[in-house]
Write a structure and sequence with these properties.
four-stranded antiparallel sheet, globular
């Protein structure tokens, strides 16, 4: 199954991209998830990220503030990874801020049982296979409607 990583950086085919230490995004979420992770799963706090679809990778990059015209998408391969619903990250972050219980979300993150539109794939490294054209803006917009359903589903767990 192809995986995709979107960024504003330039990579070359065959390049290995490794995690660069603790991620600053959602550090409290990462700490909670890592405390409940299965032994075989990669650490959430020290990872590289990919998406299972071209449009999800493009949408994620744009939501990180990269203008569409600057988004570069790469098909990548991960040898060690875990796939999880991305919407759970946002919901865990909200519940932690409100000091609410997050266990059902943590459980679904590590052992997903529901259908989700946006799956993040995390691991310690990926290998760049080739650069591909980003998803078009209209596809990204349609994808975000699907992601909104993920977010609603996560809020009900």
């Amino acid at each position: 199954m192809p995986l995709f990583h979107a960024t504003d950086k330039e990579f070359t085919s065959g390049e290995t991209v490794q995690a660069q230490g603790t991620s600053s995004y959602y550090s409290s979420v990462a700490a909670l998830l890592d405390s409940g992770r299965p032994a075989s799963a990669p650490l959430r706090k020290d990872l590289v990220f990919a998406a299972e679809s071209l449009v999800a990778a493009t949408a994620f990059c744009e939501k990180q503030g990269v203008p569409h015209k600057l988004v570069r998408v790469y098909e990548v391969e991960m040898h060690s990874s875990h796939s999880a619903p991305f919407a759970l990250i946002h919901q865990i972050d909200r519940r932690l801020a409100g000091k609410e219980d997050c266990q059902a979300l943590v459980d679904e993150y590590w052992s997903p049982k529901r259908e989700w539109a946006f799956w993040e794939v995390i691991g310690p490294a990926f290998v760049v296979l080739n650069e591909v054209r980003p998803a078009c803006e209209s596809d990204v917009l349609l994808f975000m409607f699907k992601y909104d359903r993920d977010f609603d589903q996560a809020s009900r767990l």
